[in-house]
Amino acid sequence: MYYELLIKHLIQNNQKDKNNLLNEYDYKILLTDENLTINELNFINQNLKESEYENYLILNLQNLNLLIDLLNKDSIFLKVGQKISIQELIEILENSGYKNSTESIEKYTFQIRGNIIDINSNNSVRIEIEDDQIESIRIFNPSTLVSIKKIQSIIIPLLNKTNIILKHYNLVFFILQENQEDIALNVLSRQIKKIEEEKGIKISWQLKKIIPPKNISKVNLSTLISLLKNENYKLIFSNHKAYKEFINFITTYLSKKKIKIENLDTSNIDILNQSNSTGYIDHTNKIIYLTEYDFNQKEEPLSIDILESIKEFKEGDLVVVEGYGIGIYLGTQKIKIKNTIEKEFVVIQFKKNRKMYFSIEYVNLHKYISSEKISEKIKEKILSIPSFKSWQRKLEKIYETVKSIGNQILEINSKRFSSQAYRLLPNEYDSLIESRFNYILTIDQERSINEVLRDLESPFPSNRLILGDTGYGKTEVLIRAIARCLSNGYKALLFVPTTILAIQHFQNMTDRLKEFKIGIYSSLYKKNYDLEEADLLISTPITKKNFSNENVALLIIDEEHLMGVLFKETLKKIFPKAHFIYSSATPIPRTYFLAKTGILDISIIQTPPQTNKKPLTLILTFSSKNHKLKLIQTIIDKSISSNLKIIYVNNDIEEIYEMWYIFKNYLPNKNISVIHAKLNSRIIQKTFIDFLNGKIDIILSTTIIQSGIDTPEFDVVIIDNSQNLGISQIYQLRGRVGRGSKNPQCYIMIDEKFLGSHTFERISIFEKEDITNVEIVQKDLEIRGPGSLLSKKQSGHIQEVGLIQFLKMVNEYLNKEENLPLIECQDPTYLPDSPVKNKLYRKIFTAKTFEQLEAIKKEIIDIYGKNLPTPTINLLKIIEYRIK
């Protein structure tokens, strides 16, 4: 409804202008700077398609790649709860040109497994149908068939005689926000050119401005709460379902948030019988129009096996074939044996273009990951001559190094594993600290807290990595662990990489842990606490300080990816009886893979808090310094006019002061400050406290601000000279906004001379809407390699056999296990056909614990549906007996 009102406003404005005819354009596209997801945009545009405004589209600059899907008039819209049978859906797909393929996952194919249908178009989407009704819609990974997240609706493009798209479009884009023409032109020019090249089409386009009506705004739940608390607005609900969602929202969410709305007049409401995608607020007439979609359109992330996902590979990737060596994966091929039996084989190309065919049932292969980035030039050198003896000799040679590493790991950890840890038991303080938490725990947060507290109750020293995206609530997990430690009468140490993060933790911990003395230690402070004075000491990694103390039961390393390996290993020696917790959004590959050896346990936080929103992220290119300044000025004008607060990041301190001077002259009435590590500690502390208290409008900083700092007051981050930063750094910096902002934005600035280069390709990963911390870690791994496990000596050996093979050998040395028992069964035991059947078999046959089996079961149900055939149930039962 809100967007229909915007379109009406646009049409009325253009009717007044005789020279501005809308009919000459194939489509009219309204560009909003709202942080809408692809799913939300699909839903909104489908509603427009079914209305009188079918030639109007709503887009934002971050999701311009959705344009071609939306331009295609031949499509089917599917949503949860929709009545449709699998057979009806199959007929629609087949009649439009999709092919039913049981063996491969290619574009414009679909696969059927029980009550599930997988459709591969521009997205890979899984539709689960029960009793002729869509029960769920999930985006899945086409290489593993594992679901990634749940969505509410999807647009599936249908094939037609013109092969989906026309050859030429005439479009007009309208900007819905003032002061962003330069930004829109910058992104549109680059992205439309990219679409034209990829799709082989021509797009003529123009950009025009439109000022949206000031009296109408979209429904925002925080704005809604404010209006209900302070204003006398009439409530109109699109239908009874919308009213039910509203009542549910008021009684559950608001009560959990401890928000009270006095004197809510429920008599001043109307309930209609309409179906609209979005509500609106009419400030002139004091009307709030609400639909059910204003409350329940949140996409649901699903758990994925992060440690396994790193192994996935595609055609053309280097792989390690067990028993043979390193080759290039060329996919699978069906071959007839003795002209009768047709079997599927994996095709691998080895050195000197030698191809080998391996039976898919028995081949064991994994992705080759080196200790450094592999270029095409050195790929041929890495390839093996396919020989069992040659490969075995190489492994035997490296095994001596593996033994040495294994012994080092055992030596470092043996003292800890044989020590009696401090047992930190539950007490009444647990509920007190929980009551001081003003938010709602996510499912993942709650699970991670329980895992950590179980560790602390154990008589053995624990090692656990808390892996969670920026703003996903890792700090609360750490606070609960510290509270448990201190309430048991022991001390805790919290190491952080920067003084700024130490200050923030000091403020938070002092507030939450009022009964205990919190200290802070940093080389930038003249007055420093030590462990004798403090129950909890927060410190930067200073090696000269003697932190030895028998009473330390818990040691936490926050933002562990920014701390040195030697420092972390030294702490293990100093505190052999303490429990260790590491925390990171983008852990260094070394830490990420230590979990594979069993030395580190891992808790994964993948569910975002309700207050967290991914920033709308745009890459802006500039041709000169003046051009860059003009773009930054546009961002500032746009942000200031919307009362948004800004962080500008640049690792060049000289350029920061140059920008500070420009900003000061341009915005004399705004409070603008600078932060970097070379400043006096008192200046940093005062600036940062003002920064946290919202007294600063714009802050200019080096990457010192990247480290886990909670900044809900800030809305916009500008990352300058991005070509000099790692993608993990950019990701962390982007995470500084979106924690409390209604409309968080991130602008990544890069010189256009880098277009087409590896540098731009690396940074362009941020143009993907739903980029995750897992993908950042994986990309970082591909770019930088895993880093050495304990020293630089291993990098050569890792390159010879690949990281996964190397780690597998280390793991085998550390965990010498007997062969798994065999269980016989006379009944049929097999998995139904699917493109990943054999990959699932390999997982099933190596499961050693009930937890692993449960994870595999979930994956099988995800891929095949809830109604598993009897042979599959038999197979899972056999594995359960074997584990028993």
Write up what this structure looks like.
This protein is α/β, with parallel strands linked by helices and 884 residues long. It is built from 27 helices and 36 strands. The strands form 7 sheets. The chain has a 7-stranded mixed sheet with strand order 4-5-6-7-8-9-18. Strands 26-27-25-28-29-24-30 form a 7-stranded parallel sheet, with helices on one face. A hairpin with a 2-residue loop joins β5 and β6. The two termini are 58 Å apart. The model is unreliable at 161-165 (pLDDT under 50).
Please report which band the strand proportion falls in: under 5%, 5-15%, 15-25%, 25-35%, 35-45% or over 45%.
15-25%
Q: Which sheet architecture does the biggest sheet show?
A: 7 strands, mixed
3D shape: globular
Number of strands: 36
Total of DSSP H or I helical runs spanning 4+ residues: 27
**Radius of gyration, rounded?**
29 Å
What would the average pLDDT be, to the nearest integer?
Answer: 82
Poorly predicted runs = 161-165
Structural class, by secondary structure, is alpha/beta
Spatial strand arrangement across the major sheet = 4-5-6-7-8-9-18
Distance between the termini: 58 Å
Work out the helicity level.
Answer: 25-40%
